[in-house]
């Protein structure tokens, strides 16, 4: 049994090495593309940065994210716009680069601390798990039969299954 365990650990190490080499090769290829097509890369980065900036604003408006997290994210994106003015030449000691690095660290800290305190679907407790109360059938069937909702995702899937998929009949040999 020890040999199989040893082979399993060796396989995991080999897989991690191959994954690391694959990611490095992909990043090298992307760096070559950016170096070759700097004008297009600058436009793509500008549009991605603009989309991220818009997402921060929309998350603040519609999802009530904390203002400190949104402001640090917006300031990080604005400092990325400052870095893009001299693209592809980036100096690591300019105030724009240092500010963007600082705002990214602050933003990630605020985001991690916010999402740890917010209940998420990954945390399971007694309030979100189905109960063991069974009347007819299993818990899921009981739950859906109690609901008097005529329109929903399950109804849509059942309708699509009934109308789109062919009916199979079992052949009795």
From TrEMBL:
One Pfam family matching this protein: Erv26
Topology with respect to the bilayer: Multi-pass membrane protein
Source species taxonomy: Eukaryota, Metazoa, Ecdysozoa, Arthropoda, Hexapoda
Alphabetical UniProt keywords: Membrane, Transmembrane, Transmembrane helix
The protein's name: Protein TEX261
Transmembrane portions of the chain: 6-31, 43-62, 68-90, 97-116
Family (UniProt): Belongs to the SVP26 family.
Subcellular location as annotated: Membrane
Biological processes per GO annotation: endoplasmic reticulum to Golgi vesicle-mediated transport
Any GO molecular function: COPII receptor activity
UniProt GO cellular component terms: COPII-coated ER to Golgi transport vesicle; endoplasmic reticulum membrane; Golgi membrane
InterPro entries for the chain: Svp26/Tex261 (IPR007277)
Cleaved signal peptide residues: none
């Amino acid at each position: 049994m020890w040999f199989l365990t040893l082979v399993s650990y060796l396989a995991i190490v080999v897989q991690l090495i191959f994954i690391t080499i694959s990611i490095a090769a992909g990043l090298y290829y992307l760096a070559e593309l950016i170096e070759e097509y700097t004008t297009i890369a600058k436009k793509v980065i500008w549009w991605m940065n603009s989309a991220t900036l818009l997402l921060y604003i929309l998350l603040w408006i519609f999802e009530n994210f904390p203002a400190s997290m949104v402001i640090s994210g917006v300031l990080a994106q604005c400092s990325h716009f400052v870095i893009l003015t001299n693209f592809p030449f980036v100096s690591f000691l300019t105030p724009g680069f240092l500010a963007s690095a600082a705002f990214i660290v602050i933003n990630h800290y605020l985001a991690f601390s916010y999402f740890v305190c917010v209940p998420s679907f990954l945390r399971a407790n007694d309030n979100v798990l189905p109960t063991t109360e069974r009347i007819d059938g299993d818990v899921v069937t009981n739950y859906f039969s109690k609901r008097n909702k005529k329109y929903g995702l399950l109804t849509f899937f059942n309708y699509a299954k009934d109308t789109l998929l062919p009916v199979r009949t079992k052949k009795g040999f």
